[in-house]
Specification:
Two copies of one chain form a homodimer. Chain A has helices spanning 54-70, 73-83, 93-108, 181-189, 210-217, 229-232, 298-307, 381-399, 416-419, 421-429, 431-437, 461-468, 480-488, 504-510, 534-541, 546-564, 572-588, 597-622, 630-646, 678-685, 689-711, and strands spanning 114-134, 138-139, 161-162, 167-175, 198-202, 222-226, 254-255, 293-296, 333-354, 359-369, 406-413, 438-443, 451-456, 515-521. In chain A, the strands form two sheets. In chain A, strands 1, 2, 4, 5, 6, 8, 9, 10, 11, 12, 13 and 14 form a twelve-stranded mixed beta sheet that branches. In chain A, strands 3-7 form a two-stranded parallel ribbon. Residues 1-44 of chain A have low confidence and may be disordered. In chain A, helix 8 links the parallel strand 10 (359-369) and strand 11. Chain A is built from 21 helices and 14 strands. By secondary structure, the first copy, chain A, is of the alpha/beta class. At the A-B interface, helix 6, strand 7, helix 7 and helix 13 of A face helix 6, strand 7, helix 7 and helix 13 of B.
């Protein structure tokens, strides 16, 4: 009767279910919830297909449901098990074996997978060594203590940061919290210099590549990064193998390539790394980090931090180790010795095409990265196995005559973990084709999990809501939308903004292809460690592969919707409204005397033009599409593709020409998190009215172009 | 590299570790965190013993550490496994078998357990039946669908509410959210009557007994309660057996006895249920519920709720089932048919004493309930096995000559789940002894888990902080205090107020024995279902029994501290300050013209008197206690015991004479949650200045008495 165990109470409205056009359906996906028979509840899933005439909608919904029924969790479980056997680290034999496996499996489904190889300059670790040299001498463990008998243990890469320069440094330690600019400013305020020191920071709060960049700027000679138990270890819950949180020996590997400057091969920005590509001298590649940097576990960080002297670290800098953290310098000295080769290595993307019947040149691209740090059953075999499953099912359906109107391209990207290598090189390689014909890009990075989440351009918001209403959330048996809605506590569940950190980056930010990233998250802290493995997936993250299957259904159905729509379901009036709202929010905080009203007015004008176009589209398809309307539709769809492209500037953002999109970019000091309206935000941050004026004008230009495109359809 | 998986960031200050008197120690409890060697960190645990002279503190800390080292998780695991074999439902054969097991085990440790039997009027379910009679006829499942081969499955009691009256009712359903007064007021506002209806409510937000009482008041003829998946089911996470959340067939059993009026045998309020006790006519027992009430699972609630008509329920009433909840009445009819016997049944408390050497008459009582609903591995075998382990270790230590100064009493309460039966009857039975000599009561209800929490009278706050600094949190390897602190986000982790819902109630609220409830919570929703079992404990709640062991150490050490202190470590200046703060908070919201300043001043006066007494105590023991000071100490300790007793009024609270404490009571419409200063709060709520005036005077009297007691020590 203890009240301690009574559940916390959370009660929110179940959404407006049964919204829109509801089509009777007998399709029921098996639910993980025992003993609830969902046959009775299929009507709770609503069926609406924006962009389709009533007649075609029937065909489409049948198409989607046939697809969804053929997606099998057993198939996903098998892929997951087989691919988790070996590490798929880019450039490794296990990675190659996994390419062969995927190709073999996809061929079995009647598909013709292609392996696209690029030759990318990358780091290859030979020996990683970290030694505490004072107050006592101690060699640190740089790899997990895996149980004896772990298969393919020799293939497990030690904890290291891809693209760290090689080198040996020894110095006193200074603790800099998360290594954000504000953390270094706090040190400066206290008169503590990191010059000629090794900085130790904890993971979290920003992209890890930002940390050594900030430290290097201030004269540090090296960096250690560790995972603090307060962030993803024992303070959060039981650690692996008892629970999903990070144990004392687990190391977060990860790239520190400055992807916020540009991702992909550091020597070929903007161009594919073909064998004969023109390459920069590495000394001129400004995405390459400059100081030796390497990650350690909290079990190993402990003795370093505990021995430190100097001032007590501020309250918010204290972590979960059992002592008061000090800033240093003093007492603890460390030697970092990194023997890392740099060479060109192959990056192998696996690409499959399901040719379109009606508009074969137009493409909907689905992708997930197929490389991993270690086993990577979660990151990102969960996304890649789902991609394979979608391909398998579309392949089976093609044999029976189901063919999409537009081509669906499915991709397994290699080298994502090192810096989005495979997707960037492919996107650069296919720039012309994609710019002309890519309808959308859908990304999956982390599909095993329990709680749905999405990030997307605002024009895709309604489509995400629509599709999530049509797939059952296996945990709850309600639609994914309603489950998401109920957990969100908002009137509409929030869709994130696209920053960086996964393979949508080249599509949206370099090419202006409308992008969407969907997946399922879970509580846990095994990220980039040797414990992101099959056991953790099957016991904690997605037992039964139910969410793998739901994710594959969701993404496959979204792709089919985009591939077959008579009017591609992009709602740019939402996009323009969001841009306007973001502008108004920035303007509210002061504009350095610069008048932002013209650009705000321009966003408003785009909004009106886009809304008019949407109304036109709705009118055309309302009573079925006649032959003579086909030409109108083609123009309309072309305008829909074009509006996102209109938001690019060929010269890119100031200081980072690769990032061409004027609305979305990763933050320069966050790395992952999106910085919307980057030029304006950076000018405001820099207190630079001239730059702000220029940024506003530039944004106004792209918005005007989009509005003009919307208006151009007569 | 997906950012979805990067951990949420929580960074707070690690507390002032190493506070106070630090004693070197070689004691290290094995930690669940692999590969962190905690030998190096033993100094992170601080050792302070308030109430002990320096010389005696050394002996005490050695005593505690010897105790702590002897507590074994293996022993706890064995008890847990053995006792989880059968159900320990009060009055059942499994319960009796488990008494015999405990007695046998405790005797092995050289102890002399006593079984105290009371004869309590209670409900015995014969047949529970719920039928949907319209729009379709359907018999509902009233027990979990356990896998074939489940051992002792015939002993599993169906889902039922203890103390529901027997009877058969059939009526239309009305949905009333959580069944709180405000929920019924919302119905009234909408003109929806529950008269002659069956009310369906969800579990949560209050003690379940409040729900049928509120419904009965308004003329309802029956009640169904179900666990909504938004509260502790699939919306929260994976359900059992995939995860720890409530599956569709799991039923929350539970008593609906009106324990907020008085707990224990409904026929013998205030007196023990001895065979010859004077008993009320059940018709006169105002703790007995009046309308047939029974619980169902969400798998079964679904078809009832889904078929309902009438208005849409408000936003905050919507739960996690996949449709819009309606209020009714209309469409759904239900028949509840409860064949429940009422008879006297035995309630068997297991009591063990470790006699004190110096003050054998003074008692520190430790207790946990040994009855369960089904297997109850978490609720509350976790607490009871820890009680047994503390007893076992103290028994072993006694053989080697370690004897506490005061007597330690360890109790396994029976019938807690039905309404605190065993603890209430024993406390009533031992009233005289306890009133005179009980130093404190320490309760454990839910010890298996991962996150520490405590509720206590304010005089025990410092002791809780002190002891939690001395025991290692197995999840994190830091002290329990620091782990708790780090998670709390406050300057001091909060200690809860004592309401009701577990066995501390008779001690604090009926007898004025300073009480403390400690344990470890965990995420999950298997509460009172057949799935609170060994498997769930060992896979999700406390793998390895590390927290069972930490809890046993913590409680045992607290008891030893209280048993051996030269000055019992109660800080009444904290208590008085809290009372004053609660009064000021109430006064800030308006006092109906009544002047509360005299009672506030009285609290302040008590605070000063208590602080003076604490200073006196510190002075006495500062340089060691001399023979001639023993008399002073005895008086001082008597005054410390007395101050809590001073807060009682023999006539009790208005309308509920059993509840004698003037500062703490369970809320009349919450049932579990504490209602501090109940008379004043209720008068304010009722807008009754005369009652408020009277309540303030009464409170002033008890505070004056406590102040006088504090001052009485010369």
């Amino acid at each position: 009767m203890s009240k301690r165990k009574s559940a916390s109470l959370c009660a929110r409205k179940v959404s407006s279910l049964l919204l829109g056009l509801t089509v009777a359906s007998t399709l029921v996906f098996t639910s993980a919830v025992p003993s609830l028979t969902y046959a009775a509840s299929a009507t709770a899933l609503s069926k609406t297909a924006t962009g389709f005439s009533a007649e075609k909608a029937d065909w489409q919904l049948e198409y989607e449901q046939t697809f969804a029924q053929l997606v099998k969790k057993e198939s996903l479980a098998r892929y997951s098990k087989d691919l988790s056997e070996r590490s798929s680290l880019v450039g490794s034999p296990g990675n190659e074996a996994n390419v062969e496996y995927a190709v073999r499996e996809l061929k079995k489904a009647g598909l013709q997978p292609e392996v696209k190889t690029y030759h990318v300059y990358m780091s290859v670790p030979k020996k990683i060594s970290v030694t505490q040299t004072y107050p006592q001498k101690r060699e640190l463990q740089v790899i997990e203590k895996l149980p004896k008998g772990t298969k393919h243990a020799n293939e497990i890469v030690p904890g290291y940061n891809a693209y760290s320069p090689a080198g040996e440094v020894e110095a006193e330690l200074v603790y800099a919290n998360y290594g954000r600019p504000e953390d270094f400013e706090e040190l400066e305020k206290r008169g503590i210099s990191v010059k000629d020191k090794i900085v130790i920071t904890r993971y979290g709060a920003n992209f890890r590549g930002v940390k050594p960049e900030q430290a290097a700027k201030r004269g540090a000679v090296g960096m250690l990064m560790y995972s603090d138990p307060a962030d993803d270890g024992y303070i959060k819950g039981l650690v692996y193998p008892d629970g999903p949180w990070r144990p004392a020996d687990a190391i977060q590997r990860g790239s520190i390539l400055y992807i916020f400057r540009y991702p992909g091969d550091p020597l070929t920005p903007g161009e594919p790394s073909t064998p004969d590509a023109k390459r920069l001298d590495p000394a001129d590649a400004d995405s390459l980090p400059t100081i030796p940097t390497t990650p350690i576990s909290y079990g190993e960080a402990r003795s370093l931090l505990e021995a430190m002297e100097g001032e007590e670290a501020p309250e918010s800098w204290q972590g979960g180790l059992p002592f008061t953290y000090k800033i240093g310098p003093g007492q603890t000295r460390v030697k970092i010795s990194l023997d890392i080769d740099y060479k060109q290595q192959p990056v192998n993307d696996v690409i499959v095409r399901i040719p379109g019947a009606k508009y074969p040149e137009q493409m909907v691209v689905i992708g997930a990265h197929r490389d991993t740090w270690v086993k990577g059953t979660s990151d990102d075999l969960s996304g890649w196995t789902a991609t394979m499953e979608i391909a398998r099912v579309l392949g089976e359906m093609a044999k029976k005559g189901w063919q999409p109107d537009r081509t669906i391209v499915l991709a397994g990207w290699d080298g994502e973990e090192y810096g989005l290598l495979g997707s960037v090189e492919w996107a650069e390689d296919e720039r012309e084709e994609l710019t002309k014909n890519a309808v959308a890009y859908i990304n999956m990075d982390g599909l095993g999990g329990q709680f749905f989440g999405a990030s997307a351009v605002p024009s895709l918001k309604q489509l995400v809501y629509e599709i999530t209403k049509e797939v059952t959330e296996p945990r709850s048996g309600m639609s994914i939308y309603d489950d998401w809605y109920l957990r969100s506590g908002r009137k509409e569940p929030a869709i994130g903004k696209l920053g960086s950190g996964s393979d949508y980056t080249p599509f949206i930010q370099h090419l202006g292809v409308p992008s969407l990233d969907m997946g399922f998250g879970a509580a846990g802290g095994l990220y980039h460690s040797a414990y992101d493995n099959l056991d953790a997936m099957e016991r904690f993250t997605d037992p039964g592969y139910e969410h793998h299957a739901a994710g594959a259904r969701l993404v496959g159905m979204t792709a089919l919707r985009l591939a077959n729509a008579e009017v591609i379901p992009f709602k740019y009036s939402d996009y323009a409204a969001d841009v306007r709202a973001m502008l108004e929010e920035l303007a509210d905080k002061g504009t350095l005397g610069v008048d932002l009203s013209p650009v705000i007015a321009q966003a408003q004008e785009w909004q009106a033009a886009a809304a008019a176009l949407e109304e036109k589209a709705a009118n055309i398809i309302e009573d079925g599409v006649t032959e003579e309307e086909y030409g109108d539709l083609a123009k309309l769809n072309a305008a829909l593709l074009q509006q996102e492209r209109d938001l690019l500037k060929p010269e890119g953002l100031s200081g980072r020409p690769w990032y061409k999109h004027q609305v979305w970019a990763p933050g320069l000091t966050t790395g992952y998190a999106a910085q919307p309206l980057p030029a304006i935000a950076e000018a405001l941050q820099a207190n630079d009215p001239a730059a702000l004026q220029k940024a506003a004008e530039k944004l106004k230009e792209v918005l005007a172009k989009a509005a003009e495109t919307a208006r151009s359809v007569k």
